[in-house]
Write a sequence for this structure.
């Protein structure tokens, strides 16, 4: 699966950015994959909770925020000024493959 500078191998759960491997834990891979499969769509916290986390897992907004921050640290050139995963105030997050 190709999206912007990212290549995602679903079988091996590997992600590269411009050919360079990014090491992701399983949850971050699942979260990133969900964004990649929904480019340009604002995904609310509730949607991300229901689509990425198992219902038996305890998750809250702070946990989601931490995961988003970790994901940005991996995929963004400057995590403090994200271009791929942006916060949409009072709505959720939007992934843009080609900012």
């Amino acid at each position: 699966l190709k999206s912007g500078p990212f290549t995602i191998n679903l079988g091996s759960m590997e992600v590269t950015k411009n050919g360079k491997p990014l090491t992701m834990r399983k949850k971050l891979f699942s979260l990133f994959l969900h964004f990649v499969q929904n480019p340009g769509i604002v995904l609310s916290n509730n949607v991300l909770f229901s689509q990425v986390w198992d219902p038996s897992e305890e998750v809250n907004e702070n946990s989601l925020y931490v995961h988003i921050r970790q994901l940005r640290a991996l995929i963004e050139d400057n995590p403090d000024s994200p271009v791929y995963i942006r916060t949409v105030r009072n709505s959720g997050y939007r992934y843009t493959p080609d900012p």
Q: What stands out?
A: Strands lie at 2-3, 6-9, 14-17, 20-22, 42-43, 85-88, 92-95. Residues 61-75 form the longest helix (15 residues). The mean pLDDT is 94.
